[in-house]
Amino acid sequence: MMMDLVIRGGTLVTSHGVVQADIGIREEKIVVIGLDLSGKEKIDASGKFVFPGVIDAHTHMAAPGFGAMSSDNFLTGTQAAASGGVTTIIDFTVGSPETSIPEEIMCRKKTAKEAVIDYSLHAEVIGWKPGQEDEFEKAVKSGIGSFKFYMAYGSLGQRSNTGVLYYAFRKIAELGAVAMVHAEDDSIIESLLDQLGPDEEASILSLPRSRPAVCEGVAMDQAVYLAEQTGVDLHVVHISSALGIKVLKRAKLRNVSISGETCPHYLLLSEDVYKTQNGHQFSVIPPLRAKRDQEALWAALREGLIDLVATDHCPFMQEQKRWQGSFSKIPYGLPGVETLLPLLYSEGVVKGRIPLTALPQLLSEGPARINGLYPRKGTLSIGSDADLVIFDPNKEWIISAGSLHMSTDFSPYEGWLIRGAVLTTISRGRVVYDAGEFKGEAGWGEFIPSVKDPAAGHGALKGENLKDLTGVDSYVAV
């Protein structure tokens, strides 16, 4: 059988090991993995790593919030994603008390039509009330298998109280879907904000002080208890602290059906950046933490406690983030979809913090399993979508907002020396990025349903199978 495209001589990297082989692609799928394959077209990947396409499971394209609109839309944001080896994003609907979840899904699918890579969606749950369980049923029928709840932002009308969480979790469990939580205790935050004086309000240093790590720990504990009582699959987004990791570990050791994610900025940046001249540009929620929290997060990656790394990509221009006299008047969010893979390789693998095989686990297979995309996505397997990344492990380059493709003039990693670069990104068998040039087209991306097979389980590592990833036999020193 003649292949449409063959990737020749690359080092295939999966969560299970590393092997040198060819990949044969036909009609958008991986159809054979072997040696000396031939096809109509071929790409020489000798001396390069071949990863499964990265899934960024937490992005905010064209997202309104905090008085601003994120500066990447589904066209520019997915172009940037493809340039960084991301072949699938999972974005969010825009929830509102005035609209239903099914309506919000329909609207968001229309907004996403220009995507140049595949996408799926999480549904925000804002303003939902017990008695409206049919909204979850309709959402699942439309291909949405995860629902996000805010345990903070009560002042903005976005918080879900425990009553809402309990009844919603029960229905979501019945449907075999995933309940996601933004875990920060709202009452602690509000009490701290109420105590701020004018001078503190006028300092970006008050952002981390008003949302300490205890907020994350308290909220996670509450969500875990409700998940335990309802049997729902729980996913905690953007875990930022050592306290959060402790809660996650306790839950997994009790075999609660829970998964957790963190973000590159929590792994690589500390609250010290708020002390710099432009510290306000690093405004993000949860806020950046202490260096001891970074160390705890890296340890959690090595131990297999954290199931995936996602970016929470929510970029703004510097003008949008200009200082207006108060930390509460700045839009919160950082860019990251394009630098996810290079940063995790350079700062994680090269520096010996995680093994090479952790990358496909954390960036591809983990997010695919938890979000119902596996095995169509997230793996180099026969029958899976031909989403691949050819990666040069030796190329060195310097991060600069001006040379990246994200629609922002600010990078939190400006000037960082990076080892390892994406050479080629392939989406369903089509080259969409190659040698610094974007080659895709608007609308190529398809909506991918994210409803899990109930027999597949949550996909997260639990207490009985947690492993120390530093002991994986396929570790490759670079």
Main pleated sheet = 9 strands, mixed
Structural class: alpha/beta
Q: CATH superfamily assignment of the largest domain? A: Metal-dependent hydrolases
What gap, in angstroms, lies between the N and C termini? 37 Å
Oligomeric state of the chains? Answer: single chain
The count of DSSP E runs of length 2 or more, i.e. the number of strands, is: 19
Description:
This protein has 478 residues and is α/β, with parallel strands linked by helices. It folds into two domains: 95 residues, Urease, subunit C, domain 1; 333 residues, Metal-dependent hydrolases (TIM Barrel). The chain contains 13 helices and 19 strands. Strands 1, 2, 3, 4, 5, 16, 17, 18 and 19 form a nine-stranded mixed β-sheet that branches. The protein has an eight-stranded parallel β-sheet with strand order 6-9-10-11-12-13-14-15. Strands 7-8 form a two-stranded antiparallel ribbon. α2 links the parallel β9 and β10. α4 crosses α8 and α8 packs parallel to α9. The longest helix is centred in the middle third of the chain and has 18 residues. The two termini are 37 Å apart.
What topology emerges from the helices and strands here?
Layout (H helix, E strand, L loop, with lengths): L2 E11 L4 E9 L2 E6 L4 E6 L4 E4 L1 E3 L7 E2 L2 E2 L4 H10 L2 E7 L8 H11 L6 E7 L9 H8 L4 E5 L11 H14 L2 E5 L3 H9 L3 H4 L4 H5 L2 H18 L2 E4 L5 H12 L4 E5 L1 H5 L22 H13 L4 E2 L30 H10 L8 H13 L17 E11 L18 E11 L2 E5 L2 E2 L40
Parallel strand pairs: 1-4, 1-5, 6-9, 9-10, 10-11, 11-12, 12-13, 13-14, 14-15
Antiparallel strand pairs: 1-2, 2-3, 5-16, 7-8, 16-17, 17-18, 18-19
Helix pairs in contact: 4-8, 8-9
